[in-house]
Amino acid sequence: MPPFRDLYQESYSGRPPPRSLIWATLLILCCLGLMVSLFVGGEYVQRYTRYTDARKNQNHTVMHHLRDPAKHIALRGIAEFPPPGFASGLLQSGLPVYDLRIASKEMKALQSAARRVTAKVTSSGVLREYQPAQFLRQGHWQPIDVKLRGDNNLHYVLMRPSMRLKFPKNDLFEGKRQINITDPYDKGLTADVTTNWELQRYGILTWDSRFVVLRVNDEVIGVFQEIEQFGRSISDRNLRPEGFIFSGDGQFYGDEGSGYEKAARAMELVGQCNRAGGAEPPSHCDWNFFNAHFETDRWAWAAAIKTLLGSQHGWFADNLRLFWDPAYGQFEPIPWDYSAYILDPHANPDGDHVGDTLGETLLGISEFRRMRDRRLWTLLEERIGPMKAHAEELYAKLEPALIADTRKLGIENDRELHANYLRALDVNGEFLWRLFRQHDLRMTVWGADDGVPVIEWTNHGKAFLTLAALIWERDEGRFQTALDGPLNTLDGVWNAQPGRLRLRVVAPPAARLVGVVASNGVTGDPLAEGNVRVEAGSGARPTPDIPPTPEPFVFELAGVQREASRIVFGPGSVTLEEVIEIPRRFHVVFAPGLSLAMGEGASLLISGDFTSVGTAVAPIAIFGKNGADWGAIAVQGTPTEPRRVHIAHTNFDGGTGAENDRTIFSGSLAVHGGLVRIEESTFRNGRAIDGINLKYSDVELIGNLFENSADDMLDCDFCNGRIVDNQIFDSGGDGLDFSGSKLQVDGNSVTRCADKGISVGERTTCEISNLEVTNCYTGVAVKDLSNASIMDSHFRNLEVGIALYIKKPTFGPSVASLKNVRLENVATRVVRDESCRLIE
């Protein structure tokens, strides 16, 4: 028999092939077909068995990923054998190209982990270690570490896996230590990116993302989505560098720091509010708790968009992401895996999912649900169009790359995924819009004959209602009586139960109750008479609802008067021996001539407005009793309700800082979230981390004197405003320390400071003029993506005049411009990192 190669050549020599060759070929094809059938059949049997077991155990996550074995088998096959022309089309698509090098040994380790996860369906319990690799940056190969990521087998398709790239601490990638490279369909293609774009409008932190082409070892793999890993880069980029990020099941992302213990304790309490197994959450999970621990405005926006997207998925504990802001002592949402689902009117007749997540606990609280509904109406009325336009624009830019990316199922799947997001916005929007405009108010009246009827309203519509007046009728006609007081809001349907309200009223003589004046609390529309049904009650008269009352606040101190919503200290001598926390409904006033002696560790923690305005002849004094180390005067607002703080002719002496169960206050005077004006006041002998610490505030500091602080004298973190004509002496750290702020600084002087006259950091923009810095180490330091212009200033007796550098790699290089700046007896005029820029 001739060799195989001769047979091959002979078969194409113009003569028919021998019959034995035909049979041999058929036999080989049959064997190959049998092998493929066994493989595919085995996959089907294996997946069907797991799907059946998962269905028995109600494991919906596994059911979802095993439901379509043909798709997954095809996906794996296409990934292994890409068609010709695939690479050039992607490289010409205009998307950034990310190049990786992974050595053979490390590649085999990654592929082995992928096979183990694929066999198990979930990554739980599968060891996925980082492997060394290289990443091409600006023409140079940078050493990095790579691991596989994702919780289910869809992230582990061979040759197309989801990966996490970790960069060196001293050489971050665009300020990010870790990035995820994932299949673009994991986040709904255009869905989550558009959702993030919308939520940024409301001050919500989001992760950075872009679509890229991935090339590994010179082989183009396909289109991927780069997603910023949760950690320091997200908070730094959003100018919230002091916070902590958690998942809903308690996983912590990042490094512990000051205030972490308070954040972890709060996260533990929040975790208990999940309705595990449908059980009622603990009693502490009420409105007071969430209003204190959650930035409810941003959570209401997040809840509104989840409702619009029909997404209960985003509330699941492993998808929930929470950012703890220690300045406010509150959690904020970070959107993750919201996706989009079309609401089923039969399964969700009220437009809401009711399950066992934190979202259902929150939405089960009527105060929060009303906040959500008002914001949801804004989305329905104003934002669906812009969201669709943003998604369409994004998809149009992506489509050429998606068409070229044949290493996956066809372009029709891409279009369908994108279209599903648009369809969810349209269908859900129309459904929810109709629900909010449907009214069905029923009014039952008991005991009208005795002149003191009890009325029960039941609201069978989704929107909550505001009840304004009762409508009565006499022989001479109809008239109205106002419904005043706290009980005039009637909730809408929740969990298939109507909103209910019962009131006892006094009937006017000879009048018959015939209706109510009410308006839709969501849309603002008045209810028509036909939307209200009035009927007489039968049976026993129900018990009226009791109006809510504020939590009692008892505070008795000699020399302090409580006047309605004001608490007034002084005038005269007042001694405070303990830590007092004053609720937000009170305005605290220090009267001219107040002399406030603070005992050891005593502090006044204010959640409302604060006024301390003395006069030149009757100043206000705050000091330690017999030299005691007292704590702080601290004012804490919220992002949506900043507190007004006005201080004038007030003298602070001492202070070591304070804290409550949620927040550390690092100055003798601390304001977190305020509208602050401080003038003609003095601050001496502060022993706290900062003499004064102002965060997230609009500030005006004019004509003040600061002396002798243990560390930095005046800290402004994430502030806007003016600092004018202040004098600073003998600071144990920086004279003025700015982070993340936009400030005009004019006519100030800093004399004798251990570190910098002014520190400008964390993306601060600062205009400095007429500054004098004498006998400090550094005149002005500009760092971490900040920009400072310095003019008409004089620096004397310093080691360094101007310093420009990067301290925190998550930011970047800084810029400073100098004009008419005199340096006298300065050892080193400028110290500058190579990447920073000095303009003269």
Q: What are the defining features of this structure?
A:
Immunoglobulin-like, 840 residues, 5 domains, alpha/beta, nine-stranded parallel beta barrel, 25% helix, 50 strands, flat
Provide a descriptive summary of the structure in words.
- This protein is α/β, with parallel strands linked by helices and 840 residues long.
- The chain folds into five domains: 4-67, no CATH class; 86-101 and 172-433, no CATH class; 440-531, Immunoglobulin-like (Sandwich), CATH 2.60.40; 550-710, no CATH class; 717-840, Single-stranded right-handed beta-helix, Pectin lyase-like (Pectate Lyase C-like, 3 Solenoid).
- The strands form six sheets. It has a nine-stranded parallel barrel. It has a seven-stranded mixed barrel with strand order 1-2-3-4-5-7-6.
- α2 (19-56) runs antiparallel to α3 (60-66), α7 (191-199) crosses α13 (366-404) and α13 (366-404) runs antiparallel to α14 (411-437).
- It is flat.
- Kindly report how far apart the N and C termini lie: 89 Å
Roughly how much helix do the residues carry, as a percent range? 10-25%
Q: How many domains is the backbone divided into?
A: 5
Order of strands across the main sheet? 36-38-41-44-47-48-45-42-39
Number of strands: 50
Strand and helix map with partners:
Layout: H1 4-11, H2 19-56, H3 60-66, H4 69-80, H5 86-91, E1 97-101, H6 104-120, E2 131-137, E3 140-148, E4 163-166, E5 178-182, H7 191-199, E6 209-216, E7 219-228, H8 232-237, E8 244-247, E9 252-253, H9 260-271, H10 287-293, H11 296-308, E10 321-325, E11 330-334, H12 358-363, H13 366-404, H14 411-437, E12 441-446, E13 454-459, E14 465-474, E15 477-482, E16 489-490, E17 499-504, E18 512-520, E19 532-536, E20 560-563, E21 566-569, E22 572-576, E23 579-582, E24 587-590, E25 594-598, E26 603-606, E27 610-613, E28 620-624, E29 633-636, E30 643-648, E31 650-653, E32 658-659, E33 664-665, E34 667-679, E35 682-684, E36 690-702, E37 705-709, E38 712-717, E39 720-724, E40 727-731, E41 736-739, E42 742-746, E43 749-753, E44 756-761, E45 765-769, E46 772-774, E47 778-783, E48 787-805, E49 815-832, E50 837-839
Parallel strand pairs: 1-6, 12-19, 21-24, 22-25, 23-26, 24-27, 25-28, 26-29, 27-30, 28-31, 29-34, 30-34, 31-35, 34-36, 35-37, 36-38, 36-39, 37-40, 38-41, 39-42, 40-43, 41-44, 42-45, 43-46, 44-47, 45-48, 46-48, 47-48, 48-49, 49-50
Antiparallel strand pairs: 1-2, 2-3, 3-4, 4-5, 5-7, 6-7, 8-9, 8-10, 10-11, 12-13, 13-17, 14-15, 14-16, 14-18, 20-21, 32-33
Helix pairs in contact: 2-3, 7-13, 11-13, 13-14
